[in-house]
Write a structure and sequence with these properties.
Order of helices and strands: HHHHHHHEEHHH
Number of helices: 10
Helix content: 55-70%
Distance between the termini: 51 Å
Largest sheet: 2 strands, antiparallel
Shape: globular
Oligomer: single chain
Length: 315
């Protein structure tokens, strides 16, 4: 396996990336199946983009595309059975959109030649076959050897994973945009072509940034439209005594964090991921004089705001 998509990525003198098991707990099987799923998404985007050019828009397909990409983000889904299901579901959606595209063609008109690359990829029926296919895809599904080209392709891919996450969550709240869906299809179809022109790749990377802002606006509208305007009032008040639960409430025991097949231990792993912040707070709370230290921790965000206000006042 090779994965370097998140802040947990292993860093050594020789390699920046997880190559045997992810720091997050992802194993090589899950990593390989996620690579195949992304390859399928690129191919599906090619078919969806072609269909859109003929006036065919399938919002359910676009919803699936976002969800499939979202599942490949760190700590979202490491279940090999579910990843296999998504790969086969992508193939099913490809057949559906192809049939709709063929039906939309005027009588007597034959569709243009077969789409290249991932669009023609046929996933194996079983896990062993899929793992064998994953081994042939290469880093990020690219055949390029130039590190700058690979880096730009990865930059676009990882940016699009963020776009997919925001877009998926906006959809969960009932918000979507055909214009954004079209740009997402177009960008994955672009990656499917294994582009090598660095200036063009850079231009597309900047476009991903603009797309990200658009989809964040959509998610903001979804959150505000669903839950109302969000506001934080400063200063944030800190409880006078940390760890004192309401009357009648018994806090549940703090279990060790688990991700995939890996169990984390704060004593040896430290704060290996954000989810272990409670372990850190618990460890600090057991030290003499911890209350003052924890109050400082909980007050730190407000302290930054106050410092910024003082800096602006004296500027």
């Amino acid at each position: 396996m090779f994965c370097n998509q998140c802040e947990q990525t292993s860093r050594t003198i020789d390699t920046i990336g997880c190559i045997s098991v992810g720091t997050c707990g992802k194993n090589d099987t899950a990593a390989a199946l996620q690579d195949v799923l992304i390859h399928m998404v690129k191919g599906l985007a090619q078919h969806a983009w072609r269909a859109r050019s003929a006036g065919i828009v399938d919002r359910e397909l676009d919803a699936f595309l976002l969800y499939a990409v979202f599942t490949t983000l760190t700590n979202v889904n490491f279940n090999p059975v579910r990843l296999q299901e998504l790969i086969q579901e992508a193939a099913r959606w490809r057949s559906i959109i192809d049939a709709r595209y063929a039906d939309a063609l005027p009588a007597g008109r034959v569709a243009a030649g077969e789409l290249p690359g991932p669009a023609a990829f046929e996933p194996a029926a079983d896990r062993d076959g899929l793992l064998a296919q994953a081994a042939l895809l290469g880093p990020y599904g690219s055949s390029r050897a130039d590190k700058d080209v690979l880096g730009l392709q990865a930059f676009i891919l990882y940016g699009m994973k963020g776009v997919a996450a925001y877009g998926h969550h906006a959809r969960r709240l009932g918000y979507q945009s055909d214009a954004i869906d079209a740009r997402i299809e177009e960008m994955f179809a672009y990656l499917a072509g294994d582009p090598a022109d660095k200036e063009d790749l850079l231009a597309h990377a900047l476009e991903v940034g603009r797309l990200n802002l658009s989809v964040m606006e959509l998610l903001d509208a979804a959150n505000t439209g669903t839950f109302g305007a969000q506001a934080v009032t400063y200063p944030i008040r800190v409880a006078s005594r940390f760890g004192t639960p309401p009357a009648g409430y018994t806090p549940p025991p703090l279990e060790r964090s688990r991700m995939g097949n890996r169990t984390f231990d704060f004593k040896t792993d430290g704060i290996a991921h954000y989810g272990m912040l409670p372990d850190f707070i618990q460890a600090v709370s057991q030290k003499p004089g911890s209350e003052a230290a924890l109050q400082a921790l909980f007050r730190s965000a407000n302290d930054v705001v106050e410092m910024w206000e003082k800096a602006e006042a004296t500027a």
